[in-house]
Amino acid sequence: MQAEIITIGDELLIGQVVDTNSAWMGRELNKVGITVHRISSVSDTEEDILAILKEAVSRTPIVLITGGLGPTRDDITKAALCKFFNTRLVFNEEVYSDVENFLKNRVHRINTMNRDQAMVPEACTVIRNKIGTAPIMWFRTSKGVVVSMPGVPSEMKDAMQSSIIPRIANEFVSEVLIHKTVHIFDIPEAMLAERLSGWEDELAANIKVAYLPQAGKIRLRLSGKGNDRDKLERLINEAIDKLFVIVGDNIFGFDEQLAEAELIKLLRNKAATISCAESCSGGYLSHLFTSVPGASDVFAGGIVAYSNKVKEEQLEVAHSLIEQEGAVSKAVVEAMALGACKVLHSDYAIATSGIAGPSGGSSAKPVGTVWIAWATKDKVVSRLFNFGDGRERIIKRSGDAGVILLKQMIEKKEL
């Protein structure tokens, strides 16, 4: 079953607000077997709203609208819906009661604009908004439904989860749709596709594959559609088992798993701590760890040793080593990792040193050259990478590689 999303608001079109609603809705609808096949954003004009509504209703049985339901004059979605469905606005006592309760202790008095929130199209079924003032409106069409919701993400999500998705799933969904995403590291997309060509040929007809590349990583999404959930899950799991035989060493997670969160979980189970010594990654590695709730259990801290002086004074890297080998070198990055373990009293450490560019490269060490080292108090290993061009991309790839490969080394008992 297909759905279409329409977002309304000039703020979306001029880039003042990023449309996160559609991405969230697409994910949640997919979980119940509904595929979003088109997303449109239109301005706050009746002409544009009516035009996109006419197109969407002709194409798709399920049309979901967000935005344009506030109390101010630029919010004209209700008026446009009245015109489209040839109906009129009427006062709804239940909605007004919800508005009063929501605004109690928030405003001194309910003004005309607040009261107008309780004016709803007569032809709609009202779904009450438990955490805002704008009602959710459910319209029947000859092919399906049109549902209009507030653009405020928290209000939209509450309405979708508590009312709209259950209603739509009950009425429209007949097939099961299952996704499983496999996270793969350190194989270019074209090379991965070549290695998996035979594997893809052997997949069942109702299992599809999509390659979703990121910097240094690929999300391989397997999607299955059918009437038997157990059979679909078995087919996808069998495909993943075969995938492990081909690229198992490069698989580092599934679905919504984050490598940094999984590494923290692994370290917590070992009652171990970790620190970072960063040059080219500039604190990004530390950011990955501290973005995970509960990271303080295992993350001792980090030192951004961007200058050679800091490498020497804070991480105890020998001045002669830097002069002899250069800051971007195997010897120096290993000394940084060992130094971090020592001075930050951690069980493990990750260190980075490289050339993020756009300048500073040479024929011997071009932009994108990065050394990464992983250490314990008495052992250190390192690896040389070339992450290509693009400063931000190089920084992110350095951080991701540091985390993913340490997780793998600990799991394999290599460190």
Q: How would you describe the overall organization of this protein?
A:
The structure is a single chain. This protein has 415 residues and is α/β, with parallel strands linked by helices. It has three domains: 171 residues, MoaB/Mog-like domain (Molybdenum Cofactor Biosythetic Enzyme, Chain A), CATH 3.40.980.10; 79 residues, Alpha-Beta Plaits (2-Layer Sandwich), CATH 3.30.70.2860; 153 residues, Alpha-Beta Complex (Maf protein). The chain is 41% helix and 25% strand. The strands form four sheets. Strands 2-1-3-8-7-6 form a six-stranded mixed beta sheet, sandwiched between helices. It has a five-stranded mixed beta sheet with strand order 14-13-15-16-17, sandwiched between helices. It has a four-stranded antiparallel beta sheet with strand order 10-11-9-12. Helix 3 crosses helix 4. The protein starts with a strand and ends with a helix.
Question: How many discrete domains?
Answer: 3
For the largest beta-sheet, the strand count, sense and barrel status come to: 6 strands, mixed
State the end-to-end CA separation: 49 Å
As a percent range, the share of helical residues equals 40-55%
Structural class: alpha/beta
Number of DSSP-assigned strands: 17
- Number of helical stretches of at least 4 residues: 16
Name the CATH superfamily assignment of the largest domain: MoaB/Mog-like domain
Strand order of the largest sheet: 2-1-3-8-7-6
Percent of sequence in beta strands: 15-25%
What is the typical, i.e. mean, pLDDT? Answer: 93
The oligomerization state is single chain
Low-confidence stretches: none
CATH class division of the largest domain: Alpha Beta
Global morphology: elongated
